[in-house]
Specification:
The protein has 528 residues and is of the alpha/beta class. Helices cover 43% and strands 13% of the residues. The chain is elongated and about 80 Å long. Bound molecules: 1,4-dihydronicotinamide adenine dinucleotide. 1,4-dihydronicotinamide adenine dinucleotide (NAI) binds next to helix 2 and helix 5.
Length: 528
C-alpha cells in the first residue's frame, strides 16, 4: 500500500450561505473594508461600533465605494445598489442575535476582544462563528475566556481589505477544525485567497516579513549603502514593489517597530527578530515616516528625494570571459550578446586544467573575477581562493531583466580591476550600485532570510509551504514566494548563504532552518 492510499481527501468545507447574517464589530478602516467585502458577496451585514454614528458613517463610505466601482464598471449599478442596501448599522451587540458569523475588528487589545466575545456568547446562537481580525494577539488567548473557544478563529484580512486578496485563517489551540474550514471556504466564496495558519506570533506574514526590514537595517547600520540605493536595488534588482526604507516610512515606524518588538518578545528574544537601534531612534525622534513628514526620507514641502548612488560609467573591457553554467552567467551572456559586446566562454576543459572548475566564478574581465555572492564577503572569498580581485554581484529576481545590480569588491582588490568588473556589468545594461563589502549584499541576504523564516514557519507547523508563499505574494506583494525563490536559487546555495552569514557574524540569527537543511541533505526542493 502506498502512502497516498492511507490518506483520504477530507470533504470540502462549505462556505456560509449568502443568506447567513454577518456581523462586523468595529467600523474603522478594517471593519468597514470587511463589511464591504461581505455585503458584496451577498450577506446581510450588521455593522456595530462603540463610537456613536461610526457605523452609519462607515456604511455611507462603503456605499460611495460601491458607486465608484460601478462607475468604473467593476460591478453593475444594480449590484452596487443591492450591496449597499444589505448594510445595516446596528444599535448594539443585542441586535446581533441572528448572526452566523461575527467578525471583530475593534481596538488591538486582548481584554477588549475577550470582553466583546464573552458578551456576544450570551447573545448569539451556539453555532455562530467568531472571526477575529487581530494582527498580533494570540487567537488562543482571545478564546481562553470563552464558554466555547472552539468557535473562534482568526480571520485576518490585510489593509485595504477590499483590495488585498490574502486572508489568514488562524487556528488557536482550541479552534474547531470545522470552524477554520468554514471560514476558509467563506473567504474563498468572498473572492479572497485564504491560507491556514496556526496561532503563533505574527502568524505568517508579519513573521516571515521581518527580515525584509531587518536585513536592510543591518546593511544600513553597517554602512553598506544609503537608504535610497538599497531601496532601488530591492526594487530594480529584487523585483519588490517598494524598497524596505520607503515601505517602513509608509507603514510608520511607530507601527513597524511595535510589530517588530512584539514578534521578538513573543519569541523570547530570538536573535532572528532583534529590532534595530535605528528604528528605536526614529521612534524616539518622532520621525514616524510619511504620516508626519519625516522618516528615513524627508516628506516635508520642498524636500528633495535623494537619488540612488550609481558607479560612474566605465569603459567596456575587451577581455570578457564567461564561466560555468549558472543562470547568472547565461543571463550575462545574453545581455552582452544583445548589446553587441564581445565575450568568450571559458572551456570546461581549460577550467579543470587550471583548477577553476568549481570555484563558482561567472566572469572575468580586466583582472577581476566575478562571482554571485554566497554569503561570504568579497574579502573573505578572496582570502579563501587566493585571488585578490574578487568582485561579487547580488542575486536578482531575474538576472536577465534586472535593471540594476549591487556589487561588492574585496578590500585588497585593485581599482582598475573593480572598474573593469563594473564596466562589464554596465556594458550588459545594468545600473551598478557598489556597496561596501557586505556579506550577502542586499537582495541575496534578504531573500535567504525570508526563505529561512518561511521554512521555519513551515517546519513548526504554522502553515504549509504553499500557504507561506501565497501569503507573502498576496499579503505583502512579494514578486515571488520566498520558498519558491529559494528553490530557484538552489537550496544548497541558500543554505550556504545562511551558513556563511552565520560564520561571518558569529550570530545565531542566521542559523539555517532544519527544513532547508533536511531538504538539502535529501537533494530535494521544498516544492518537490
Ligand atoms: P481603527 O482604529 O480604524 O478602528 C477600530 C474601530 O473599533 C473604531 O471605530 C473604534 O471606535 C471601534 N471600537 C473600539 N473598541 C470597540 C468595542 N469594544 N466595541 C465596538 N467598537 C469598538 O482600527 P483598524 O485599523 O480598523 O484595526 C482594527 C483591528 O484590525 C485591530 O485588531 C487591528 O490590529 C487589526 N488589523 C489592522 C490592520 C491595519 O492595517 N490597520 C490590518 C489587519 C488587521
Amino acid at each position: 500500500m502506498s502512502v497516498s492510499d492511507t490518506q483520504h481527501t477530507p470533504p470540502r468545507a462549505v462556505p456560509l450561505e449568502p443568506s447567513a447574517v454577518v456581523a462586523v464589530v468595529g467600523a474603522g478602516a478594517m471593519g468597514a473594508g470587511i463589511a464591504q467585502v461581505a455585503a458584496a458577496a451577498g450577506h446581510l451585514v450588521k455593522l456595530v461600533d462603540a463610537r456613536e454614528g461610526a457605523a452609519a458613517a462607515a456604511i455611507d463610505g462603503i456605499r460611495a465605494q460601491y458607486r465608484k466601482l460601478a462607475d468604473k464598471s467593476r460591478m453593475t449599478a444594480e449590484a452596487a445598489e443591492a450591496a449597499g442596501r444589505r448594510l445595516v448599522a446596528a444599535a448594539g451587540l443585542g441586535d446581533l442575535a441572528d448572526a452566523a458569523l461575527v467578525v471583530e475588528a475593534i481596538v488591538e487589545n486582548l481584554e477588549a476582544k475577550r470582553t466583546l466575545y464573552r458578551e456576544l456568547e450570551a447573545i448569539v446562537g451556539d453555532d455562530c462563528i467568531f472571526g477575529t481580525n487581530t494582527s498580533s494577539i494570540s487567537v488562543t488567548s482571545i478564546g481562553a475566556t470563552l464558554r466555547r473557544p472552539e468557535r473562534l478563529a482568526g480571520l485576518h484580512f490585510f489593509n485595504p481589505a477590499p483590495l488585498m486578496a490574502l486572508v489568514e485563517i488562524v487556528s488557536g489551540l482550541a479552534t474547531d477544525k470545522a470552524v477554520a474550514d468554514t471560514l476558509f471556504a467563506t473567504a474563498e466564496a468572498w473572492g479572497k485567497t485564504p491560507v491556514h495558519a496556526r496561532s503563533t506570533p505574527g502568524f505568517i506574514v508579519n513573521r516571515v516579513a521581518r527580515p525584509y526590514y531587518a536585513e536592510a537595517l543591518r546593511v544600513l547600520n553597517e554602512g553598506g549603502a544609503d537608504c535610497a540605493t538599497l531601496d532601488a536595488l530591492m526594487r530594480d534588482c529584487g523585483g519588490f514593489r517598494m524598497g524596505p526604507f520607503e515601505l517602513m516610512d509608509m507603514i510608520g515606524h511607530d507601527v513597524n517597530f511595535a510589530v517588530t518588538r512584539s514578534v521578538w518578545n513573543a519569541f523570547y528574544n530570538d536573535p532572528r527578530f532583534t529590532p534595530s537601534l535605528i528604528q528605536q531612534e526614529l521612534v524616539d525622534a518622532g520621525f514616524y515616516g510619511r504620516k508626519n513628514g519625516r522618516g528615513f526620507f524627508d516628506y516635508r514641502d520642498g524636500a528633495v528625494r535623494p537619488a540612488p548612488k550609481e558607479a560612474v560609467a566605465q569603459s567596456t573591457p575587451t577581455d570578457i570571459v564567461l564561466h560555468g553554467q549558472s543562470a547568472a552567467a547565461h543571463a550575462l551572456a545574453d545581455r552582452l550578446f544583445e548589446r553587441g559586446i564581445a565575450y568568450a566562454w571559458s572551456e570546461a576543459e581549460d577550467e579543470r586544467s587550471r583548477g577553476q572548475a568549481d570555484d563558482g566564478r561567472i566572469a572575468e574581465a580586466g583582472g577581476a573575477v566575478l562571482f554571485v555572492t554566497d554569503g561570504r564577503s568579497a574579502t573573505q572569498r578572496a582570502a579563501d581562493l587566493g585571488i585578490a580581485n574578487v568582485v561579487l554581484i547580488d542575486a536578482a529576481l531575474d538576472h536577465a531583466s534586472a535593471t540594476r545590480i549591487a556589487v561588492g569588491a574585496a578590500i585588497n582588490a585593485w581599482a582598475p580591476a573593480i572598474g573593469a568588473a563594473i564596466g562589464l556589468l554596465q556594458a550588459a545594461g545594468f545600473a551598478v550600485s557598489r556597496l561596501n563589502d557586505i556579506p550577502g549584499l542586499i537582495v541575496m541576504r534578504t531573500v535567504a532570510m525570508l526563505a529561512n523564516e518561511a521554512a521555519d514557519a513551515v517546519n513548526q507547523g504554522v502553515c504549509d509551504a504553499r500557504g507561506a508563499d501565497a501569503a507573502m505574494r498576496l499579503g505583502v506583494n512579494y514578486p515571488r514566494g520566498p520558498l519558491e525563490w529559494a528553490d530557484r536559487i538552489g537550496l544548497p546555495a541558500v543554505r550556504d548563504v545562511l551558513a556563511n552569514l552565520a560564520r561571518f557574524y558569529g550570530e545565531d540569527r542566521y542559523r539555517v532552518s532544519p527544513l532547508i537543511q533536511q531538504h538539502v541533505f535529501a537533494g530535494k526542493n521544498i516544492h518537490d
